[in-house]
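dumping this here so i dont lose it
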């Protein structure tokens, strides 16, 4: 039998489980949504079982099954990545950069991407997913001035593909080093995940 303190803690656990389920519905990335929802469902089931709240258990068990089915379905869908030249001054480029201007500034507050040598749209499964802008320097080095992906596609897969082991945009051209700068903590975490290292000078560097 629970003491008052234990019972209070158990109720807090239940509220947190419910909050996690609700919070998962705010995710724009569908994989994150199903994963967080599944964790929330499991936590709710754990909370409900000792209380014999069978309807709550059944509801969340059903939701958990749906979560798992959706995650398996997402894994089975083939993913295609492409880069499409972004023509500065074109109607779509102007619309896209204005549409996402505030979000882009979080990644490139100086708006250096506007003067970059090369600019491309990230395309994932026929959907425009972001914007890549960079300068080609000497000695096989590329300076990335903007690596922007809209929230819907921020699951590291685009970065892992274009800056990972295959690196199709750069390796075939003899590029051997990628450098970039950021003051965005979330972007720093992303860079670590895809293999960049931080230098004392403030640059993030990856050797290909």
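and the seq i came up w/
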């Amino acid at each position: 039998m629970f003491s008052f303190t234990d019972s209070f803690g158990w109720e807090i656990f239940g509220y947190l489980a419910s909050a996690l389920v609700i919070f998962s519905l705010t995710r724009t990335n569908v994989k994150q949504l199903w994963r967080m929802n599944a964790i929330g469902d499991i936590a709710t089931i754990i909370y409900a079982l000792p209380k014999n709240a069978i309807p709550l258990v059944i509801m969340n068990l059903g939701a958990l099954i749906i979560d798992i089915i959706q995650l398996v379905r997402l894994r089975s869908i083939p993913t295609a990545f492409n880069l499409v030249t972004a023509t500065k001054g074109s109607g779509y480029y102007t619309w896209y950069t204005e549409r996402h201007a505030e979000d882009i500034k979080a990644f490139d507050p100086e708006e250096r991407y506007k003067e970059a040598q090369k600019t491309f749209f990230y395309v994932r499964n026929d959907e425009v997913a972001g914007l890549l802008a960079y300068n080609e320097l000497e000695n096989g080095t590329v300076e990335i001035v903007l690596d922007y992906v809209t929230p819907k596609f921020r699951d590291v897969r685009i970065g892992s593909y274009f800056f990972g082991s295959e690196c199709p945009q750069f390796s075939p051209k003899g590029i051997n080093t990628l450098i970039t700068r950021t003051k965005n903590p979330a972007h720093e975490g992303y860079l670590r995940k895809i293999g960049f290292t931080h230098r004392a000078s403030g640059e993030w560097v990856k050797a290909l």
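The two ends are 60 Å apart (CA to CA).
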